[in-house]
Amino acid sequence: MNEKAITCKGLTKRFGDFVAVDNISFEVNTGEIFGFLGANGAGKTTAMRMLCGLSYPTSGEAAVAGYDVFTKQESIKKNIGYMSQKFSLYENLTVKENIRFYGGIYGLTNGELKEKGEGLINKLGLQGESKKMVGELPLGWKQKLAFSVAIIHQPKIVFLDEPTGGVDPVTRRQFWDLIYEAADSGITVFVTTHYMDEAEYCNRISIMVDGRIDALDTPASLKQRYRAETMDEVFYALARGAKRSAD
Amino acid sequence: MRTLRFLLEKEFKQIFRDKGLLPVIFIMPVIQLLIMPLAANFDVKNINLAVIDHDHSGYSQQLLAKIGSSGYFRITANTASFPEAMKQIESEEADIIIEIPANFEEQLIKEGAGPVYLAADAINGTKAGLGSSYLNTILADFNSEIRMKLLPQQANTGIDIRSSDWFNPYLNYRIYMVPGILVILVTMVCGFVAALNIVREKEVGTIEQINVTPVKKWEFIMGKMIPFWIIGMIDFTIGLLIARLVYGIIPVGNLFLLYGFLSVYLVAMLGFGLLISTYSDTQLQAMFVAFFFIIIFILMSGLFISVDNMPVWGKVIARLSPVTYFIDVMRMIVLKGSGFNDIKIPLLIEIVFAIILNGWAILNYRKTA
């Protein structure tokens, strides 16, 4: 088995003249929580979509769970979970039906579906809501549910694109408990966020500016290197130099 | 296969939960089938006639009475001069002017024939054309009656043409229209609804979630097509029942043959919807593109205008539409009782449509952009 969950070298994505992701290289170790930071429009989502097999890189190379992103997307898809910026469960299906559907298409057996489904509902405290349409749930619950569904098949890596956007601090804290729990069970977590307190929760973080990765290290080392008290200051120091205007 | 089962389960649940979609799928076709055939009627009745009778004779009165009693004409004005009658046409109170000259009766008696002048408002071409031809028939009939009476020795000359109308003996417009309208309804449901359904998943973002799972392309596409294929079959069956109960149209031909053709046709139309969905990012876009093509398909399908009457370029467009063949086959099987040998060429063409449209759509649907 590959020790590195993700390796990427010179990964680039161009849309016409625009270089969304500019020659980035990094590695993510198995089992770590990797924070992928950057201002709006820095290229985080584009990079993540390439790693998930949703979009072809223009050049460079990358492997996810040991599979090449150019040729083995379908193998990658079996081994990853993904939670996009947009809410991606079906609003007109109930909590239970969503779990059954996503579990089912990831190939869980009927027994596993039942067991995992009940376990998940109990863990999230959704017993009373399991027959409610997902569209009726508050955003925080939806996000926790979406995350749990994204890892229902116990993937090797889970990609989270701004999972806590618009969520209250208490729920965010609970959300990170779920992330830690997943990491403890051996899932590598690749997460983007705009909240610098969340960045502190990560084992290592990278900061993207204008499509490039300008810094990559543990939060503590980064603070030391930029002589900063908090991650906020590190982020300011780096993102201030950005030429691209935020969207 | 197991994945497909989960996809289908989800799709059916969503369809039957969609309070906006269900009436579109099941109630709208019923209402349209009840209303459209009654309105889409080319029979011309109630043609308004402006009369200028310069003769005021027994024969001219007889002629007008005969016209009036035919059931097609209403004498709305009696005017003294042509310009006056023309005013009636200009104000759209009359459709046709009939002018009987002063010496009409005299000429009839002397020569066995009298001149009558007809002028029709041809803005509504169908009304003018059919009205004039009805009037001509009545006049010819009147003329031969007079000849019989006045000149019995010269009667019975000329060729007597008798025609009989097969498969629709009373030339009932509905018998011709209902099978065609049924095709259009099935087309709308499958062509539109399927396309919008997929694009909605794009809009909401759930398709991206599907694209990042190991679901195979064919599984996703089958998961979308099978439910709407079944709905198309159900809609068609409801339509056939209405045709039977309301319009008394019982298919003469083999029902298995009809459903066999329908099943291929639905695959072709669903492929069309799928193709549009792969090129559209929003439901609005998909709707306008689908609307554009479906309008052309319907207008050129031979539903309203016979394809044989179209100019060459029109025929080419008609032949490029899968709808044309089904309307044709539908009328052949339902009204004429045509068998497999009669429809095998359109069936083959429809199969080719199904393969091309679906193949193109599958090629164009990408899990990785």
Q: Topology of this protein?
A:
The complex is a heterodimer of chains A (247) and B (369).
Chain A: E1 4-15, E2 18-29, E3 33-38, H1 44-51, E4 59-64, E5 67-68, H2 73-79, E6 80-83, H3 95-105, H4 110-124, H5 139-150, E7 157-161, H6 169-184, E8 188-192, H7 196-200, E9 204-209, E10 212-217, H8 219-225, H9 231-239
Parallel strand pairs in A: 3-8, 3-9, 6-7, 7-8
Antiparallel strand pairs in A: 1-2, 1-4, 4-5, 9-10
Helix pairs in contact in A: 3-4, 5-6
Chain B: H1 2-17, H2 21-39, E1 47-53, H3 58-68, E2 73-79, H4 82-90, E3 96-100, H5 104-111, E4 117-120, H6 125-150, H7 173-204, H8 206-211, H9 217-247, H10 255-279, H11 283-299, H12 312-319, H13 322-336, H14 340-364
Parallel strand pairs in B: 1-2, 1-3
Antiparallel strand pairs in B: 3-4
Helix pairs in contact in B: 1-9, 2-7, 2-9, 7-9, 7-10, 7-11, 7-13, 9-10, 10-11, 10-13, 10-14, 13-14
In words, what does this structure look like?
The complex is a heterodimer of chains A (247) and B (369). In chain A, 36% of the residues lie in helices and 26% in strands. With 247 residues, chain A is of the alpha/beta class. Chain A has a domain at 4-87 and 157-239: 3-Layer(aba) Sandwich (Rossmann fold), CATH 3.40.50. A six-stranded mixed beta sheet of chain A has the order 6-7-8-3-9-10, sandwiched between helices. In chain A, strands 2-1-4-5 form a four-stranded antiparallel beta sheet, with helices on one face. The longest helix of chain A is centred in the C-terminal third of the chain and has 16 residues, at 169-184. The radius of gyration of chain A is 18 Å and the shape is globular. The model of chain A has no long low-confidence stretch (mean pLDDT 88). With 369 residues, chain B is an alpha/beta fold. Chain B has two domains: 2-40 and 169-364, no CATH class; 47-154, abc type-2 transporter like fold (3-Layer(aba) Sandwich). Chain B is built from 14 helices and four strands. Chain B has a four-stranded mixed beta sheet with strand order 2-1-3-4, with helices on both faces. The longest helix of chain B has 32 residues, at 173-204. Classes of the chains: A alpha/beta (247), B alpha/beta (369).
